[in-house]
Write a structure and sequence with these properties.
Helix content: 25-40%
CATH architecture of the largest domain: 3-Layer(aba) Sandwich
Radius of gyration: 19 Å
Structural class: alpha/beta
Number of helices: 10
Strand order of the largest sheet: 2-1-8-9-10
Number of strands: 10
Length: 254
């Protein structure tokens, strides 16, 4: 039996190393997937801050991860220092959502806290409910460019937060064939999984008519960015995960 996305052409905008799972789910739902990588994940300008933090993990009460990339890059630096999950003994670990928690488990760590609301605000509320307050020391490995709602909110409650960049996102190259197909109307939907994918898509696909294209965003932060850039967001799942996004897109077309 054909899936709910049978006959639909869906543009995916993730970085190439992270695109496989999304492509598989879309194809399983019957879609023709058009890959259009709008971002690339690269090293930060300086690994010094995160390397210093890794050497001083005993100073922290919590380590907070807000993306899969942050997990993989952080543990990559741990491996460079010939360390592994055992070096985090005694620390409490928070994860922004289930995909990030799964990445932690692949590296030998089970998250102590995963909020129901998979955004920075949800992490902030949950940490405060778990006793984070004045002088709590928190390590936040993340992208060089990211929202400051979490560290600012924690600091407003007196916590000491060290934000250390473990990666940065730069513009991707897109794909000439996919761009050509979008220009002649051969795209039914575009899927966004972060604000950075939205920003760089707008640059790469400038002039493409999206009036007949369904815009699907993984969560409210990404959706807000899309709306700020004039896009009409039609699909936004209740749970901010890739499987939920694909399911919501299928339900929309179904």
């Amino acid at each position: 039996m054909a899936g709910p996305l049978a006959g639909k052409r869906v543009v995916v905008t993730r970085a190439l190393p992270q695109v496989a799972a999304l492509v598989r789910l879309l194809e399983d739902a019957g879609a023709e997937v058009l890959v259009f990588p709008t971002i690339e994940v690269v090293d930060p300008p300086d690994f010094g801050p995160v390397d210093d933090a890794i050497r001083s993990l005993d100073l922290y009460s919590w380590v907070v991860f807000t993306s899969v990339n942050a997990v993989e890059r952080f543990f990559g630096r741990m491996a460079e220092a010939d360390l592994d999950a055992r070096h985090m003994h005694g620390l409490r670990v928070a994860s922004v959502g289930p995909a990030t928690a799964e990445a932690l488990e692949r590296n030998g760590i089970r998250a102590d806290f995963v909020p129901d609301d998979h955004v920075g605000e949800g992490v902030l509320e949950g940490l405060c409910a778990r006793g984070v307050s004045e002088d709590t020391r928190i390590l936040l490995p993340r992208a060089l460019e990211a929202r400051d709602v979490l560290p600012d909110g924690l600091r407003a409650r007196g916590a000491r937060v060290d934000v250390v960049p473990v990666y940065r996102t730069v513009p991707g190259a897109g794909d000439a064939a996919t761009l050509a197909r979008m220009r002649i109307g051969e795209a039914d939907a575009v899927v966004f999984t972060s604000s950075s994918t939205v920003h760089h898509f707008a640059r790469l696909a400038e002039g493409v008519d999206l009036s007949g294209v369904t815009i699907a965003c993984i969560g409210p932060v990404t959706a807000a960015t899309a709306r700020e850039l004039g896009m009409d967001v039609a699909v936004e799942p209740a749970e901010y995960t890739v499987p939920a996004l694909v399911e919501a897109l299928g339900a929309y077309f179904g």
